[in-house]
Design brief:
The chain has about 140 residues and is α+β, with helices and mostly antiparallel strands. It is built from 3 helices and 8 strands, in the order ββββαββββαα. The longest helix has 13 residues.
Length: about 140
């Protein structure tokens, strides 16, 4: 059986000493670095869902969305006897606040220079989004 799922996330960015950095997280039970994301709640817009997930998982807030059109990631995986086709919409955003990880879901997090992020990411789609951000931010 094939199931379509949709999630929403933020690509958290900050400038530190003139260098753009991106926050990567490692989910509990996961083996790859990624961006904060999760499922939407009824009645939420895509941006509201993404913002809520960012806050829940990292304690951070969106200061400024850097691009109104979200970047898309699409992949599939097996769950039990199902093939799940997942689409994730990510909003690149400058974030603010103090990092506070949701222990039940997030094992670790790290800020890395955006130009180096592709070395830490596992999946091709996530690496492509970082390259688009480098172009967007004119790094």
């Amino acid at each position: 059986m094939r199931i379509e799922e949709e999630s929403f996330g933020v690509i958290p960015l900050r400038q530190e000493n003139g260098t753009w950095q991106v926050l990567l997280i490692l989910h509990q039970g996961g083996r790859h670095w990624a961006f904060p994301k999760g499922h939407g709640n009824p009645g939420e817009t895509a941006l509201e869902s993404a913002s809520r997930e960012l806050k829940e998982e990292t304690g951070l807030d969106i200061e400024e969305v850097l691009q109104d059109t979200p970047l898309m990631e699409r992949y599939q995986f097996h769950r039990k006897r199902e093939i799940v086709v997942k689409t994730v919409r990510y909003f690149p955003a400058r974030v603010k606040g103090t990092l506070h990880l949701q222990a039940e879901e997030i094992r670790d997090a790290k800020w890395v220079p955006l130009k180096e992020a592709t070395r830490h990411l596992t999946f091709k789609e996530a690496k492509e989004m970082c390259n688009k951000l480098i172009t967007l931010l004119k790094i």
